[in-house]
Each structure stands twice: as structure tokens, then as C-alpha cells.
User: What shape does this take?
Amino acid sequence: MTFTSITFFAFVLLTLILYYAMPKKIRWVILLLASVVFYSLCSLKYIAFIVFTALSTYLCAGWIDSISRKTKLKVKAKKAEWSREEKKAFKDKATTKKRLIIALVLVVNFGILFVLKYYNFLSGSLATLLNSIGLNVSFPTLGLLLPLGISFYTFQTMGYIIDVYREKTPAETNFFKFFLFVSFFPQIVQGPISVYDDLAPQLYEGHKLEYKNIKYGFELIIWGLFKKMVIADRLVGPMNTILHDKSKFGGEFILLAVLIYSIQLYMDFSGGIDVARGVAQMLGINLTENFKRPYFSKTIGEYWRRWHISLGAWMKNYVFYPITMSKGFLKLGQKTKKSLGRNIGKALPGSIATFIVFMLIGIWHGANWKYVGFGLWNGLILFISNLFQAPIASLSAKLKIRTKSFSFRIIQMIRTFIIVLIGYYFDIADSFKDALVMIKRSVTDLHLGNWTEPKCFENIGFTAFDGYILAFSLLVVFVFSLYQEKKQIQVRDFLEDQSIWFQWAVLLIGLMSVIIFGVYGPGTSASEFVYMQF
Amino acid sequence: MNKKQVIRIIVFVVLASLIFGFFTILLQINNGRDVLGTYGFYLEPENSIDAVIVGPSQIYTSYYPAYAYKLHGYTSYTIATSAMPGSVYITATKEVNERQKPQLYVYDIGGFAYKDLAAEANVRKYIDNIPMLSKNRLEAIEKLVPEEERDSYYFPFIKYHSTYNQIITASKVLKDEIDQSRRGYSLLKNFTTTGSVGNYTTKYFKRDQNVDITNQGLDYLKELLDYLKETKTQNVLFATFPDDINRTETKSSLKAHEMIASYGYDYVNFSDYKDEMNIDRKKDFYNANHVNIRGAKKVTECVSDFLFETYNLNTTHSEEVTKEWDDCASYVDKVFDLSEQRLQAYEKSGDTKEGHQYYMESEMFSNDGLPKK
Assistant: This one.
């Protein structure tokens, strides 16, 4: 049941009717039932995995929370009796116990993700390595598919238990409520990865049926479907035609495939997130934004703050900060400041942590060396740009470069986009080596004049009609994005201020565009949402 | 949510549904000929058709119902779409029986000889053009379409939405459909002809063919025969309509003939009567499989003689039905003349290409019902 199927929208409609028909107090139960039904319909075979993750996290979070509470109570009770050292010793003991519990949960749950996602890749790589040194070794392979949304729910639940450990949030006492947080159906497929404190209270509160929520949610769904079905899915065929037989095409087509991928991926992923957010909003729930027009970014750092925001935020909170705030890194910072000077020395530990984060993001994307290359590329660029940020800023000032000027910002955007594109080569290549060959061919075998040949696009299965539809659709997305970027408000708010007829005209045109120009149905190669696989 | 907002939502949903409905109709027009021809059947007054002829394109190109009426006074309609497979003959028969009580049912046996009797494109040409919620249509879908592919049959928009690039052609057909509906009946009764002469070097020409009917074909034939027996249908004729092919019967086709006979029904190969029909293979065919307008005239004369005399068809009709059919018959000569003119122009031009110049109602008649020049 994908987000673009009739079954899904029938399911959403039924959920909405039941949700608002029930008394407010038990509306969360409808959401839970809907989520369980949705998961069962999509991935019944693997439901045990999500139940295990939810159950183990729920129990251990409760245990950690109880230790925290008991420790506080005991320390309070013994305030007068115990010395400072005794209190510290007692607290340390409790912290050690909590650490052991959280370590167990993290190892087990990330272990499941690791085994399901990376076992075959690692065992295969190890076997290749051992074979290359003459040891004839083979490892059994796992024939398991990934449970739906495993990365997303694992990250979300692990974030929750870390917050409980940090005493930022109390543990949820009702397992069923907690399971709803883990499995909430609009976001289970491809995120966004939510924080417990933001999402859970909204899930458990029985929301009032509000016209604005229904309308805004509907608008967001139409917008998401437009991006996914009219644009992204239209690009899948031509892109795959090139990528499935790269040797048949020149470097300019390889470059074209990467350019197509940059549009396809963004439209696919952000479109899917918009549908998820739209469905949630109809239920009165606001899911976090996951994209903020990333291709307008002026630096690669900014790009990553605008792209898959919830993953970036997760990495920042649960990986980057713990690394940079660790004793080792603090010591390293002091040492590098002394030896490498204030600017570089100060930036080095953070840059190393950023590099580690991006290696993890690369690996998170998939079990293949090409994703390691993807992480390496992005990590390296960020490492260098962080490290030399201050010297470059001072050089720009000395050279009197007007960094705020329009032309400079455009150059920055193009530069950032090129860096992002290079990263995408690793995404779409068959392997790490293939990515390097593709990059090389895009430069050394480039005949851009071929793009002007009339049959150029026909050869990759792209008709003139597709071209018109795509050009117009991209123009619409660009204009809307530019408006949002300039005004920093939602297009939906702008629409709300217009006459009802204008609003309806826009909505009906959007709806009919999706229905008529969307790529779906028999004989089409509409793809699954790209990020479902992660 | 207040009352005003609820009303707004309802009005929006109604508006969206109307626009969606319009586009559903428009974009579903996949093949104008099949759409108009099939739709025309549902315009016929109830219990007004004396004979139905069911089959693929050989039927609608060679048998002209209004001409048969002019010759003998019986009414008939061809339930035929291009490459109509025998698997949907039973659906067509049930659809006929919902509205009509024909005295005679004729089936082109060629529909059972296709290799794939559930081929999506061919099945759809018929079942997607009959009423969407007809129980016979739903039954056909369940029988012929794998479960995972049924969505696009229940919601044909899933299939046809991508035909937006043919929207201008579809609009013309829709206009014809509206004109037909306003007139109240089809003038040609699904007859479609062509004003060209085939060039026998084309890929379509395979003069020597074995008539093979697969086991699947025999099963569908048996299913139809059982249904006809169950409904106590008396006059049933299975036939092969004339084409320019030398057919060799095989074990399977002979088995089909035996099966038909065992149910007490008839089989006739009209191709065997081409000499009696005076068919000239160089002038009367559009291609190896289909006669042109000249051939259609000869085939209709022969076949209608045979049907009328063999089955002793009663030609009593109500005033309303007589008026309708007289009107249709009044166009017969015009249709033949116009098509002959076009055919002669085609011959003079020296064009040897096999153009698909099928003439439908919209191409034959202008809005006021007069033949187009």
C-alpha cells in the first residue's frame, strides 16, 4: 500500500472518519489500530521486528526512568544523612546501571538493523578480502528483506531512549501509546524521524476536527503527489535507460542522468514527506519539516541543514554532540588550539566529528562501498570547509569580495549544487569504482552539443509531451520555492488570503494535474519511494 | 468545523467529482470506432433487434446492418470491436440479453482462434466500452484479469489517464457520441468501412494459414455454448466471415465444429461462397483480413440472404423502430456512393500504402445528417 495508491487514500479516509467519530479520549486508539493495520498490510512478515524494538525500548526506558526517579528520591531522602561523596557515589552507581541498560538497548536494536542491512555486505567484503590473500572463505548470506521503515523507527526509538537516559523526557508508561509513537503510519515509510517530545503529545491528544487542518493537509498531499507522480516518476524511465546501459551513452548522458537524479530524488523524497505531513495534518498532527528548498543552499553545510532535516537533527543530537562533548574531544580541542592556532585548532575537533557523522550518514544510506564514498565525499568537503571557514572569510574580506551580492550568492549556489551532484554519482553508480568512472566520463567524454539533437531525448524514452509537462511542472515548483524562500512563508498561507474561487481553482488544477499527468497505472514504471529502501 | 465549512467541502467534492467524471469519459476514449460502435448498441430501443452478430473487425467491416434491413426488413446490430476475443463473446451475449430478445445470434468463430484470449488490449476494447457497473463486465473482469491487475479495470482512469496527448481526437469522438445520443440511435449500427484497396505486399498479408484453436479457446467456446443452451437459445450460427486467406482446418478447429454441432447449432464458412458473392480479391479487399466497401456490399447481400432465409426472421416492428431503421436505410446508398467515390479517388492516386482509412459516422455524415463530400 504505497502513498500513491487508491487503497492508501481509501485507508486514510476511513481512518479520518473513525478518528473524528470517536470520543477525543480514545482517538489515539484509532491511530494505533490504523498504524498496526497499515504495517500489517505492508510488511506483516516482519512485524515482529518493530514489536521487538518497541517492546525492548519501552521496557528499558521504563527501567532507566525508574532508576533515575528512585535515585533522586533516595538522594532527597538521605539529603541530611549522606555526605557529598556518598551522594556522588550513589548517583555514579545508578548512572553506571543506566549506561549498561542503554548500551544493551542500543547494541541490540542497532545490531538488528546492522545485521539485516549490512551483514551480507560486510560478509561479502570480508570474503573478497580473505580470498584475495589466498584464504578461500565464504560466509552464508541472509535472505531477509528489510522490515518496512526499520531505519526510521530504530532511529526514532533510540533517540527516545537517549532522551529518557538524559532525563530530557519521562518514559512513556503505556506500551500501546508508545507503540503508536514508534509505528505512526504516515511517517513509518520514510520519515520524518520525529522527537518523542514533539510528536507523542500530539498523537495522544484527541484533536478537534478543524477545517483548516483538513484543507491544509489536503493541499500538502496534492503538492506532494504532484512532485512525486508528475515530476519524479516521469524521470525514472529516462534515468534508468541511461543507467542500465551506461556504455551505450556518452559522458553528456551520464551527466544528464545525474542531473535528472538530483531532481527525481528531491521530488520523490520531499513529495513523499509532504504526503505524510499532509495526512498527519488532517489528523491534527504536525510532523516536522524535512526539507527547506535545499538546492538554494549556498554552502554544503547549509545544504545538509535543509536536506533530510530530521536525520541531520538526529545525527547532531545523538552523534555529533556526544562526540564533541566527550572528554577525549575536549582534550583534543585544547591540544589543537595550542599547536595549530586558534582558528584551525578550534575547528578541528568539530570537523572530525562532522566527518564521522557523514561517514555514518553514508553507511546509513546502504550496504555498499559506493555509499561509503558518498559519506566520504560529503564528510571531506565539510571537514575542509569547516576547518578553513575562518581563514577563507578573512581572505574574502581582504580581497573585498562582496559576499552578500546577488551574483556571489548565485555562484555559491551553483558551486554547492555541483558538490552535491558529485556526491550523487556515488548514489546512482553500481559501485564505488563505477562512480569514479562515471565522474571521469562526465568530464572527458562530454559532448554537450548532443543535447540539442532532436532525437537525443527520444532515445532515452522521453517524449515531447513529457518535456512540456516536466518543464511546466518544474517552473511551478521553482516559482513556489522562490516565493517561499523570499517571503519565508508557506504557499498555503498565501492561498488562504485569496478568494475561495481562486483557492478552489488552484486546488482543482493541482488535483487534476496529478490525476491526469501523474505517471501511474499499467505499463508505467512508477517507482517506489526512493527512501523506502533506507 | 462550522456548517459553512462543511458545505464548502461538499461543494468542492461535488465539483471535483464532476470534473473528474468529465475527464474519465474523455480520456477513456481509447479507440473512437469501438467506443461509438459499442455505445450505439445501448441506444437501440429495447427488444428491437432481430439479430446480433458478434465478433472481431471482420464483422463490422463486412456486414452493414442497415443495408441488410433495406434488403430484407430485419434489424440487426454488430457487437464487434477490433480483435474481439472469443472470451468476451459470453459477456456480449449477456449484455445483449439484458436489453434485447434477438431471434438469431451469429458468432464469428475467428474470435476463438486468437493465441491469447485474455490479451488486455483486446479484452478492454469491448469491456471498457460497455456500462462501467454492468454485472457482466464485472464478471468478465473476474474471469479474465489477474487479481492484482483488476484495479485499472474497476477504475479505468488508472489505465487511460495517460492518453491526454490524444485529447483532441478524443474530444471529436466525444462530440460524435453526444451527437449520436441526441439523435437517439446510430446511423451505421457499428458498420465501419474503408475506401481503399489493399496492397498485398504488406505485413498483414499471410494468405495461407492454419486455423488453430487453443484448448483455452475451446474452453471459452464451450462456456458460451453451455450458456446458450442454458438460456434455451434456439437460433445460433457460428461462422467464418470472408477474407482473402486460404485457411486449412486443423484438428482443433474441426473439434470446435463438432462441439458446435453437438449442441445443435450451425457452422458456416462464408469464405467458401466468395465466388457466389462475386468477390474480386484485387478490388474488394482492404487487406487480407478485411473487405473494403465494395466487398462489404457483396458480403452483406450474401450473408443477409442466408440469415433471412435460413432462420426465417420475423420482420414485424413497432412504428418507432421502423421509423429509425428506415432513416438508417435511407443513408445506405449515400454511404455506398460516397465510399465508392473515395475508393476511386484512392485508386486514381496510385497510392499503394495500406492506410487505415476507416470511415465512421462522423467521417460519413455532417451534423445535419447529410453525407460529407
Q: What stands out?
A: Residues 306 and 366 of chain A are 21 Å apart (CA to CA). The interface with chain B takes residues 6, 209-211, 214, 463, 465, 500, 504, 507-508, 511-512, 515-522, 524 of chain A (CB under 8 Å). The mean pLDDT of chain A is 88. Residues 84-132 of chain A form the longest helix (49 residues).
